[in-house]
Design goal:
- The chain has 1 helix and 19 strands.
- The chain has about 230 residues and is mainly β.
- The protein has a single domain, classed as Jelly Rolls (Sandwich), CATH 2.60.120.
- Strands 3, 4, 9, 11, 12, 14, 15 and 17 form an 8-stranded antiparallel beta sheet that branches.
- The termini are far apart.
Length: about 230
């Protein structure tokens, strides 16, 4: 998702007034958050306990959480081009996008085609996560924005690829490779039409989600990552 410079500030205020956000470059010291909620939630892998629920993370952006099954999830970011958006706080909690509340936001002010930011989840034991990406779309490509997302899952040194049946797209996006989706249409940022549901077919110990500027557009764009689930 992208917004014009004219509308960027209002979009940012909507997120920042409905949730708590912390700059990616100013993360707090590593902390452990125990998520003891065991209410069932429907993920793309079916009914499974909620393991990492961003709504349960109060006030700070953690670099480490402990899920309710004891799995420790470490979180890091990669910003090699220095494009994570500082005024939108780069990665933030808050608001609603894709019709789901309190996603983790990846935002950037990209300058050149191919710029990207990346979030890295490391799991203390192998798990097969399922999750939803939100607001993956495009507008007026190739001069407008086009969200590109690349998934890299590994179990130790072994790469675990996603097959066609492991990614469920919506009208605003499409699969373009074994581990890659791109936006193909502009959709409202509160619509499920920009949603991408991902289910890993086998356990992984690390997941990288890369948000790429996949057009000649330069400016503000973002996507959301909703809660992580896996079956115990």
């Amino acid at each position: 998702m992208a917004v014009s410079r004219h509308t960027t500030d209002s979009a940012r205020r909507r997120f920042l007034t409905t949730g708590t956000a912390v700059a990616a470059t100013a993360w707090m010291a590593p902390s452990v958050l125990t998520i003891d909620r065991v209410a069932a939630a429907v993920g793309t892998c079916g009914v499974a306990p909620v393991q990492v629920d961003w709504t349960s993370v109060a006030g700070t952006f953690p670099t480490q959480v402990t899920a309710n099954d004891g799995t420790i999830v470490s979180i890091a970011t990669v910003d090699p081009f220095g494009v994570a958006d500082p005024s939108f706080l780069g990665l933030a909690f808050g608001g609603t996008t894709g019709a789901l509340d309190n996603p983790l936001i990846m935002a950037m002010d990209n300058a050149t085609n191919g710029d990207y930011t990346e979030i890295v989840f490391r799991f203390s034991r192998p798990v097969a996560p399922c999750f939803s990406l939100l607001d993956v779309d495009e507008g007026n490509f190739p001069t407008g924005w086009r969200d590109g997302v690349i998934f890299t899952g590994t179990n130790g040194a072994t790469t675990v690829n996603l097959g066609p049946g492991d990614i469920v797209t919506a009208p605003g996006n499409a699969i373009v490779g074994p581990n890659e989706v791109v936006g193909i249409a502009s959709v409202p940022n509160n619509s499920t039409d920009g949603q991408v549901d991902v289910t890993y077919p086998s356990p992984i110990t690390q997941l990288r989600i890369r948000h790429v500027d996949d057009s000649t557009f330069t400016g503000f764009q973002y996507i959301g990552i909703h809660d992580l689930h896996w079956c115990p």
